[in-house]
Amino acid sequence: MKKHAFIFAIVLFVCILLLGCNAEDKNSDNENDEKLNIVATIFPEYDFARAIVGDKATVSMLTDPGASIHSFDPSPSDIKKVQSADVFIYVGGESEEWVDSILQSLDTDNMKIIRLMDSVNVVEEELKEGMTPEEEDVDAEETESEELEYDEHVWTSPQNAILLIDAITVAICEADEANASVYESNAAAYKEKLNDIDKQIKDLVKGAKRNKIVVADKFPFRYFVDQYGLDYVAAFPGCSDQTDAGAATIAYLINTVEQEEIPYIYYVELSNKSCATAISEQTGAGMLLLNSGENISKTDFNNGVTYVDLMNQNIETLKKGLEE
After folding, report:
1. DSSP state of 126
2. Torsion of CA 45, 47, 52, 55, to 10 degrees
3. How high is the pLDDT of residue 261?
4. Does the global pTM surpass 0.85?
5. Among 197, 202, 246, 275, which residue's CB has the most CB atoms within a 10 Å radius?
């Protein structure tokens, strides 16, 4: 997923924008719009921010609903949105390497910038037994000296989400001190919901019949399973955009389901479900959606679906997979 050519193109875009714009444009925009302008790259941080600010600020998301965050290429208009932000929130990690190139080319002195991976303890991306590796991982032996890649799906654990909300709240309050008490109150209410979800999941796992899940899809749930002591097998690593699992992976997942009598297998949101369908047809196991929250469909986005809604849905599907 290295994007050297793309990064070069982004730098060119930024240069063009900077030549066509000047600092007075941004100052003028701020004078005409008193509300804080918050720009988030993907859905989880967008949802956290909008819950915190309510109607006191504007929040926008760069990634389109229904799109993969791992193949996102910012347009010139996206770069301009970042440039105009009072608060900019991104995750960091491999999928957002483009962010650093953009920020280095912009005047960010008056911008609050939040990199979510700096707010939690991160773990290395894991290639577990049975997984079909990403194509670039096949030559891993030749790149042993490269920098370690950390799993960027830090929001999938509700306890991590609380830490992320804290970091976002601090930055927003610093950017708009006049409404700080409102933001802090909204954040506290949202975190209360997350604490309730966290308790429900802990109670569920504690009393469950089994502690292993089979995800016949990519696996963005590393922080989630680590948090709750769950074991797992999966078809692909979390950042993979591959849809065709190798024969060895299919066989491994089928054997796991049959030998351990797993009643349900999971797929992730916005998936084509090809791997899960193949496993289900061979084993008779049911198929259930497990939301990572990475992104949501356009319909769900327009209907105001939240991270809390997704986690509540996960509780119900996990009950079936772990208890039946």
Report:
1. -
2. 130
3. 97
4. yes
5. 275
